[in-house]
Amino acid sequence: MDIERQIADLSRRGFLVVTGKGGVGKSAVAATLGRLMVRQGGRSIRTLVIEVDPRENLHQLLGTPPSGGEILDAGGGLFLQHLKPRSVVDRVIEERVRLGAVVRRVQASPVYQHFVDGCPGLKEMAVLEHARRLLDERRFDVVILDAPATGHGVSLLRAPLVVAEAVGDGPFGRIAAEIGELVAHPERCGVVVVTQAEEMPVQEAVELAAVLDEHLRREPDLLVVNALYPPVTAEVDADGPDRPPAELVDLWRRRRAINRRELERLARDWPGPMVGLPLLPMPRGPELVSALAACLGSDPVRALGSVGTGEGGAP
């Protein structure tokens, strides 16, 4: 597929949600998409990548200090911000109420504390509202949300509907309705799913597509199949003193066989476009993001058979 055209199309949405099973490299893909967004088309596209994982590791990939809630410049028109959902809820309350003394009294109330902790979807909705506000204020052209892992990512996308049902009218109900329109609109919000060509991540990706169709009547815009094992090169496979242990070569071949099997499954069951990324022997950091940006866009089946320095035949 034409990845430049796909990236340009996603950038026109303004808001992009990246989700997938935990451990598949979702944050690395979000950072890579951010780098590609600011480069494409020869235009200056200010792009913000938002992270909500409490472990806060996106800054490692983009070469900045920890965000701590601040918006940090990662260079070249790319920015990042780490959010604590509870803090975002408090901020939304402050913006809507606009009376300092009243806000402090409300936030100190046990009723408010129980409401925030117990209302389903409220924290997720506040994160979406934060992203929507940044776009509406034109502070950024594109906001990419490095969303929680698949199950929580689905909850995040469904949050406006859940909150609207839970609270009805009022300030939060109105916010939920506004955000619900954004998330459900395929021309304003893009959904990218990250997976690996292994059984459980693929199963979760396929189920996520079904849930999006059922609850939001939309399909994901792109599937990124990450960490595809490259071919066993002729040098590795040949006998000699530098040949890796046989059990490691056998493991490598087995992982490639699993990759191939699950890619065949995706070819049958995945409803939309997909691209592949190779497994790269590099530490987490800006160099990895740059390398992934250079690789993104290949057909995953072709990537499985051609990445590396040797022949790409059967695993």
Give structural notes:
There is one protein chain. The protein has 14 helices and 8 strands. It is globular. Strands 3-4-2-5-1-6-7-8 form an 8-stranded mixed β-sheet, sandwiched between helices. Residues 306-315 have low confidence and may be disordered. Strand 3 and strand 4 (78-82) form a beta hairpin. The protein has a single domain (3-306), classed as Rossmann fold. 54% of the residues lie in helices and 16% in strands. The protein has 315 residues and is of the alpha/beta class. It has helices spanning 3-13, 26-39, 58-62, 85-97, 100-108, 110-118, 122-136, 150-167, 171-184, 199-216, 234-237, 246-269, 286-295, 300-306; strands spanning 15-20, 47-51, 71-75, 78-82, 142-149, 189-196, 222-228, 274-278.
Layout of strands and helices, then pairs:
Elements: H1 3-13, E1 15-20, H2 26-39, E2 47-51, H3 58-62, E3 71-75, E4 78-82, H4 85-97, H5 100-108, H6 110-118, H7 122-136, E5 142-149, H8 150-167, H9 171-184, E6 189-196, H10 199-216, E7 222-228, H11 234-237, H12 246-269, E8 274-278, H13 286-295, H14 300-306
Parallel strand pairs: 1-5, 1-6, 2-4, 2-5, 6-7, 7-8
Antiparallel strand pairs: 3-4
Helix pairs in contact: 2-13, 4-5, 4-7, 7-8, 7-9, 8-9, 8-10
Structural class based on helices, strands and sheet pairing: alpha/beta
Structure annotation, total helices: 14
Largest sheet: 8 strands, mixed
The whole-angstrom Rg is: 21 Å
Kindly state the percentage of residues in helix.
40-55%
Q: Low-confidence segments, ≥5 residues, pLDDT <50?
A: 306-315
**Large-scale geometry:** globular
Averaged pLDDT, please? 81
